[in-house]
Amino acid sequence: MTALVRQVTSEFVGTAFLVATVIGSGIMATQLTDDVALQLLANSLITGAVLVALILTLQPVSAAFNPVVTAVDAVLGGTPWRNVPPLAVAQIAGGTVGAIAANLMFELDAVSISTHDRSSSGLWLGEVVATLGLVLVIFGAIRSGRTDTIAYAVGGYITAAYWFTSSTSFANPAVTIARMFSNTFAGIAPASVPAFLGMQVVGAALAVVLVRAIFSSTNSEELSREGALQR
């Protein structure tokens, strides 16, 4: 297999497991308790844990699981632009498969379009903040030469961002799109998706500015040749 095929496969599998975890843990939490705070706690801790596991496992090949992270990596010189479309498609397709798998595991319809409306200025700002922070954490680790910490940094950040952002930190277009297909705790109504995607792009763009302002490009250039996210 070529390097790109391995990367596409890694992104597909990783994003599928990520979305299956986000949706599946939300379903399990609502089955076990009616306490919304406990439901969110379970959802956030389990999502953070699986991110650590998936990134540790797949980072040697490709472990972005997120189209905006892949695009930012290209902007900063870590991934060739020609690789961005196939990687993004793999992430979206993998996320959709993960949503279907989660639904089926809990004996729900394979696809059930979410009716969970998430539309307000506060939620949109939450997505800007969530995505900005996620991208800053990832590329701050890369530019400071600490790629071995990315798994723990991302897992910890997402666990926290579930709680401190109003949107519960989707921060990922592939995950956002996939969550349309499950009318459960973690779902999002299709009408709410475009604004979330737009705010994620805004957050990522702001993060690029901050990363360039805060961190030296020297380590980034060296790590890009090694391939910190996509090898």
From TrEMBL:
InterPro entries per record: Aquaporin-like, Aquaporin_transptr, MIP
Alphabetical list of Pfam families matching this protein: MIP
Protein name: Aquaporin family protein
GO CC terms of this entry: membrane
Cross-referenced SUPFAM superfamilies: Aquaporin-like (SSF81338)
Molecular function (Gene Ontology), one example: channel activity
Membrane topology summary: Multi-pass membrane protein
Membrane-spanning segments: 12-30, 36-58, 87-106, 121-142, 149-165, 185-215
Transmembrane helix listed as a keyword: yes
Lineage: superkingdom: Bacteria
Lineage: Bacteria, Bacillati, Actinomycetota, Actinomycetes, Propionibacteriales
UniProt cross-references to PANTHER family, sorted A to Z: AQUAPORIN NIP1-1-RELATED, AQUAPORIN NIP2-1
Keywords: Membrane, Transmembrane, Transmembrane helix, Transport
Cell location: Membrane
Family: Belongs to the MIP/aquaporin (TC 1.A.8) family.
Keyword presence, Protein biosynthesis: no
